[in-house]
């Protein structure tokens, strides 16, 4: 049980990120001084939206230049903070060298931040942005669970450098975090494990999120013949930010938290958009047959391997989110609200 002094500054790593932006907004609105650790504080395209929020709230924001792979680069930003939100981590499916572009930044970055916490006497709690990717690799993993539903007790055991390397990076990074945490007793570790994150970005011009690549495909005709019925979990970015905030300031928060609102699939995402946008955009409402995907998938996208298609298409995904609802009193937004708010941002910014 940890009580955080709300008069102390709060550190957010990767503060310009998709989830982090909404978390920083919440902290500023609550009057906190936010220590924003970013790679380039002088890149106005990346920070102007945060400056705008700070200017309209009672909170303050201070930028610190930090790099996941640079030992000691979080020292100044962490000084005096009791609470650290470590959100910075690569999220991409486009890479040439998964070891260098995914594994090393995720694992070394996590170790860098947590080892700095060991040297910073003020730190009492770290909230780490992990992922459901650290809990499962394929939707078929759900069928191997005791109750047909993923829980915080489950770990991803089937991803590797060669198969789903992003999931592998999240698994290794979270395991590294718990390993470092267990060797000390001064600060607590809480992890937030979101499924696929959707919802409006605060800075759409700087959005490189995989979620928005998918969202764009749902409206640009990529899936006009049908979408793969790919079993996934989905959660609103605003709810993920809220989960981080509550994980930081709820004294009894502990362990891992599956942060997923909806057990769904790509076809259902199209159905959620259909009522409002179906007349104007080619949103998919039918499923592409699995056998067609098995034939063409590997040629269309290197990540759509036959193994991936076999294990995820037409396979139901299910996770138990009762722990976060009970411990942190999280209320999740409806799927349609999340999808419509996300899609509208792409339209308003001429992205689609």
Automatic annotation (TrEMBL):
Signal peptide: none
The NAD-dependent epimerase/dehydratase domain, residue ranges: 10-247
Pfam families: Epimerase
Keywords: Oxidoreductase
GO molecular function: oxidoreductase activity, acting on the CH-OH group of donors, NAD or NADP as acceptor
The keyword Oxidoreductase is annotated on this UniProt entry: yes
Top-rank lineage group of the source organism: Bacteria
Name the record gives this protein: NAD-dependent epimerase/dehydratase family protein
Organism: Christiangramia sabulilitoris
Upper classification of the organism: Bacteria, Pseudomonadati, Bacteroidota, Flavobacteriia, Flavobacteriales
